[in-house]
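Format notes (please read before filing issues)

Several people have asked whether sequences and structure tokens are stored in separate files. They are not. Every record keeps both together, in the order shown below: the sequence lines, then the token lines. Line labels are part of the format and must not be stripped during preprocessing.
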Amino acid sequence: MNEDLRIRLLIVDDEQSIRKLCMTVGEALGFVCLEASSAESALALLEEHPVHIILTDMVMPNMSGLEFLEKVKKLFPRTEVAVMTGHGSVETAVHAMKLGAYDYISKPFSPLEELRLFLRRMAEKIRLVEENQFLRERVDSETDLHGIVGSSAKIQDVLRMISRLKDTRTPVLITGESGTGKELVARAIHFRGAFAKQSFVAVDCGSLVPTLIESELFGYEKGAFTGAIKSKTGLFQAANGGTIFLDEIGELPLELQAKLLRVLQEKEIRPVGSNQRVKVDVRVIAASNRDLESEYHKGTFRKDLYFRLNVVTVHLPPLRERRPDIPMLVHWFLDRYAPGATIQVTSAAMKCLLQYDWPGNVRELENCVERALALGDRAMIDLGDLPTSIASGPRDSVPAEAPRLSSTDLEDIERATIQRVFEEVKGDKTLAGKMLGISRATLYRKLKRYNISSSADLSTTTQTLQ
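Then the structure lines:
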């Protein structure tokens, strides 16, 4: 169970004293707590701040707790809803459970410990569901997370964020250096979720001609400018119902940033040369390799747009901060560019790959593997198959904390990783191969090489690495 998951709790009740009491108990459990005094305000809040648990009163003015429950289950099916009811209203609470409520608890809470245990039990279920969902999606054969490979803690955090965001319409800001895979994450969020059958439109804001950006994004009417011989649909309309991915959004001119902000707020666009506004329902995922917070302090990026986009941030670590993932990535690229082939990577070459700083990140590693396959003998990758800058680059470029690994160290790391995953999937070789990012044939070779066949070796391997 993922104990690190921070549970987000929303309390909905028209009595302030009840809200404050529930928030006090929730915060003591380590939850992030939000409150709303009505069902209507709760629904508005949920549009911007998805939560794991909702604790709602049954009797509220205007919209009742039952009506609220039905709307939540329709709009946010993965959110758990528990109802609070006064004594004598058990029948209503049971009806709520038939509509999808997790459980009910009676007010007033007596003793208060009952409420604490109730919320803790819900949190345990949430964490278990999250962990199982995460593992299932890592081994889903249909989309294999679009090449997001790795078992490091930082990449697992990214994969969990993808799992949480895939079914929402929440704006997402993806940050990270060039080559870390920001578009891969955007595609995974879209194609693994409820809107996968809708359009995904990727826009490289840095490559758009400044004078044509507005017409590209929002479209134009016939005769809007010289050369506009017919009307054209913009990229936002093309993405209607789906997702638009605005890569390197920091490159947009300030004037266009203001217009984009209006689109996000009003959910409508106005084509160039038109007086008519067109409604659009688009989930916006933006990405930048810049520090946009610093940019708005300098006046080169709008502060209001930054906060509008930065509802949820997914940060992709550079490859130098996730070196244990490099062997997995190398084998994944080998299987991708030479499917079915048996290609060995010498210990010397792998050691060099692990010690290099990768300023171009995963994209540079992919190019390196593809180059080695093109120029080598396609049976083995050795130092001579690597670019000179990598094979004999200055070692002082490696951070002081990066360990110098021997071939024995590398084998121990690989063996322990395979052993851990193999144990996690209870010996299922197909699932283990998918989680490791290697083919079934490669996994068989590794299992044979390291004599991995049961859980007996796990504790020995772990102690060896420690």
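For reference, the curators noted about this record: Residues 231 and 350 are 55 Å apart (CA to CA). The chain has three domains: 8-135, 149-315, 321-465.
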